[in-house]
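S.,

Sequence below, as promised.
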Amino acid sequence: MAGIYLHIPFCKQQCTYCDFHFSTTFDAYRQEMVNSICTELRLRTSYLEGKAIETIYFGGGTPSILTKQELTQLLQTIHSNFQVKEGVEVTLEANPDDISKAALREWKELGVNRLSIGLQSFKEDDLAWMNRAHTVNEAETCIQLAQSEGFHNLTVDLIYGLPNLTMEEWRNHVQKVIDFGVPHISAYCLTVEEKTVLDNWVKTGKIQPISDEAQGDQFLLLLEMLEANGYQQYEISNFAKPGFESIHNGNYWKGEWYLGVGPSAHSFNGTSRSWNVANNRKYLKAIEENETFSELEELSIENQFNERVMIGLRTVKGVDLNELATISALPEAFSLKKQSFIHDGWMTQHDAVISLTKEGRLRADYIASELFM
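The prediction came back faster than expected:
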């Protein structure tokens, strides 16, 4: 099985914290972009070596900006050029301000069966400084509207660790999503990415980040509340009721193959990774002139070992050391570090599988880096 990711590089406006590739001035060439992504799909039909497509994911950017005609063109191109599994999971990332009864009915008609809604916060002040295009009222009503139109496989994004976000406010945000009956939540800690508006504000003192300790406290509160309400943390940032885990993202973490199309999209086929140019005009020109629009990296044994460790430790299933040893023999330093983390209460081992404790998940990136070859 394999997946297809489509990067739609369009946004209505620029969020202050975002470093993803997108453009806010795209009306003049939006159809050309859709045509080019379709061309890339046709050009790269052999990349997945005939594997059946189990998931299709529209990300970005803001794919909910696309019209019914544009989505239809993209989906028809996939179905015409790839073997698509019956019951394929089709996820569309959507902003609350794009969600209407008419849009939901169009998406359902096209086969979209999973919505990923970018709420981020239920606090107007936060939405304002983040330069989100929606209001708290739109955030609340879009969930109910989606559910009323038969979208029950929903996920929402929340951000914790925001400046001036109190524990009580964060508790209320999480509780609100629980009360709405949303079966999947992706919760991310605010990170200050270089060359973003937020990065400039932090450097100039306009915004003061909250402490690492406060971020950790909000993360632990999130774990406590979601666990008490029947959600399983199946990956560091992802929580689901049974049966509502993301198949697409789950396959990333299992190391399954995927094809990424569109500017800046990444692809993976088990032994190599490629990524498209993160520039809309350069991408369009390369597609039109049949020139190279991506770079390729063959993954060394060291790369494969480290990726298996990093991705595995982010998931509830952890890292199977027997499987890891099929890539490379475990270095002595790995075993020593592993025992140290177990002693510190950050890691557990059951048979040949290591996984992180709640305290360990707070330090997931650090622990993984210490175990790298």
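Residues 2-253 form a domain with the TIM Barrel fold (CATH 3.20.20.70).

Coffee later?
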